[in-house]
Amino acid sequence: MSPFLSAYFARIGWQQPVSVDIETLRALHLSHNCAIPFENIDVVMTREIQLDDQCVMDKLVSARRGGYCFEQNGLFERVLREVGFEVRSVLGRVILANPPQMPPRTHRLLLVELNGERWIADVGFGGQTLTAPIRLITGEEQATPHGVYRLMNENNDWVLQFRHHEHWQSMYHFDLATQYFTDYVMGNFWSAHWPQSHFRHHLLMCRHLPDGGKLTLTNYHFTHWQGARAVETVNLPDASALYVVMQERFGLGVDDPKHGFSLTELTAVMAGFDTHPEAGK
């Protein structure tokens, strides 16, 4: 086993053998979601996000930070490839907020081919991200540990949807075209620097739980969800309380010399954020 895989498995608490099969893929997917939080702290701190393998490894694994889709799915792609899966990244256009026109390709997800079947894996979409791979097949409801999803297809344009109460909510469009590292660099730069990017104006975190629940954070608003029900909701009073929640509830590392951050740094960057935002999911 490579030093990289050993470090990654330690990061997610993995102690099982691995095989190139759907059971391993499902278990790795869920373990990743439950161990490595989705977060955009570097964006709000105006730190540049680097996507090369070493930088992603240093931040998400060694420093025990989290990240967003370009980092999360970049890391997971490397893991799956080293285990022996046939996997590559594709890019999607996020439509969760019903934009008035089709947005650019700013979401990275994974296409896995296994025993003649194709699967979509995605560990980087925040609160609504998949927590299990789903078959690349149109119209079939597919259950994951944290919700029911389906894929719709028209003229090679796929749409991922999740069931929200009594209706289907579209998350993103994607196709299976070959992408290159520069495409991820471009999408990452847009996500972090476009003035209207929501990643620039809100602190966002999510960690899924093995029991089907999840923890979310929008600025100072912390919620523990169990399905669609909020079982704990807290408006954190200040950056000090936020700093504690990040570490104790989300398992976030803050002490790394390069990728960590101090309470003073967090306080400064959060000064312009609302301490009582509306709850987000």
Automatic annotation (TrEMBL):
Keyword Transferase: yes
Enzyme class (EC, first level): transferase
Stored Gene3D superfamilies: 3.30.1120.150, 6.10.140.1930, Cysteine proteinases
InterPro entries: Arylamine_N-AcTrfase, Papain-like_cys_pep_sf
EC number of the protein: 2.3.1.118
GO-annotated molecular function: arylamine N-acetyltransferase activity; N-hydroxyarylamine O-acetyltransferase activity
Keyword line: Acyltransferase, Transferase
UniProt-listed SUPFAM superfamilies: Cysteine proteinases (SSF54001)
Family: Belongs to the arylamine N-acetyltransferase family.
NCBIfam families: PRK15047.1 (NF011621)
Protein name (record): N-hydroxyarylamine O-acetyltransferase
Organism: Lelliottia wanjuensis
Lineage, broadest ranks: Bacteria, Pseudomonadati, Pseudomonadota, Gammaproteobacteria, Enterobacterales
Name of the gene: nhoA
